[in-house]
Structure formats: structure tokens, C-alpha cells
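Hi everyone,

Forwarding the result from last night's run.
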Amino acid sequence: VNDGLSMIGADKDGSDQILSAFCQACITGEKGKNIVEEAYSATMLCLLGNQAMAEKCKVDFPEEYKIPSMKFQ
């Protein structure tokens, strides 16, 4: 759980892997794996994060929005 600190400039935040995958896709023309699922997950987490900040509380990922290919613990 992030304590609300900015991840800008953080080591190992995943940005380098995302940029590398994007560049590889541009070079080869190949579509990234699970791109729709990644986009869905990123969008949902962004919206839930905005909701949590607005309500100043913890928001869980709703069961009805989970899709089978997503891994939840």
C-alpha cells in the first residue's frame, strides 16, 4: 500500500518496462500481450484512486468489476 507519496522518480516503478515494451511494439509492429486487460486495470485503478482521494478513505476493487484474467490476492 502506498502511503500517498509521489512515485515520480521512484526506482523500479515499472516505467522502464512500459517504455521498453512500447518501443519494442513500435519497432516490431507486434501488439503487446494482454493490452486490453492492462488498460482496463489501469483505468479502474485510476478511477478508484480518485474516488479514494475524494472520499478520503480506502476503496476496495469491487468484485463485479474483476475479470478472470486479472490476478487478485
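The CA atoms of residues 41 and 70 lie 8 Å apart.

Cheers,
N.
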